[in-house]
UniProtKB/TrEMBL annotation:
<keyword id="KW-1133">Transmembrane helix</keyword>
<protein>
    <submittedName>
        <fullName>Multisubunit potassium/proton antiporter, PhaG subunit</fullName>
    </submittedName>
</protein>
<feature type="transmembrane region" description="Helical">
    <location>
        <begin position="12"/>
        <end position="32"/>
    </location>
</feature>
<feature type="transmembrane region" description="Helical">
    <location>
        <begin position="72"/>
        <end position="93"/>
    </location>
</feature>
<keyword id="KW-0472">Membrane</keyword>
<keyword id="KW-0812">Transmembrane</keyword>
<dbReference type="Pfam" id="PF03334">
    <property type="entry name" value="PhaG_MnhG_YufB"/>
</dbReference>
<dbReference type="InterPro" id="IPR005133">
    <property type="entry name" value="PhaG_MnhG_YufB"/>
</dbReference>
<feature type="transmembrane region" description="Helical">
    <location>
        <begin position="44"/>
        <end position="66"/>
    </location>
</feature>
<feature type="compositionally biased region" description="Low complexity">
    <location>
        <begin position="120"/>
        <end position="151"/>
    </location>
</feature>
<dbReference type="GO" id="GO:0015385">
    <property type="term" value="F:sodium:proton antiporter activity"/>
</dbReference>
<feature type="region of interest" description="Disordered">
    <location>
        <begin position="106"/>
        <end position="151"/>
    </location>
</feature>
Amino acid sequence: MNTTLPLWVEWTVSILLVISGLSALIAAWGMVRLKDFFQRMHPPALGFTAASWSAALASAIYFSWVQESLSLRSWIIVVVLSITVPITTVLLARAAMFRRRQQGDARMPPVLVPREEESAAQAPASAPAAKNPETSPASPASNSQQPARGR
């Protein structure tokens, strides 16, 4: 086991740890500074992820040198964060959007409706059924598949 570190390893690890601390500090400052929840989601997702990548790289370099073999155990944390942070961010955004829609916030975009429900919602409920023989239920043409509408 190597106990003395060359100067380039010490400097590299130190610089990466300082970058990690600054990234976390900038992300925390962004959370305090920004006013809206949706604006506050972005800095921590990027800043804390960049901080964890820098710290994991510093850890990999340090322990690889000390153990005299490639040490990548710290990258498990990075892989888990890379998978979970975007998923968590999307779920939090959707929950906040749902909550604001329930409160009647006019700034929220409208709910997306599938095309079948959208066309049924736009048709007047009291209008009589169409008398087109091609689309009437008794017509054999109604049993065949209709071509899909494209945008």
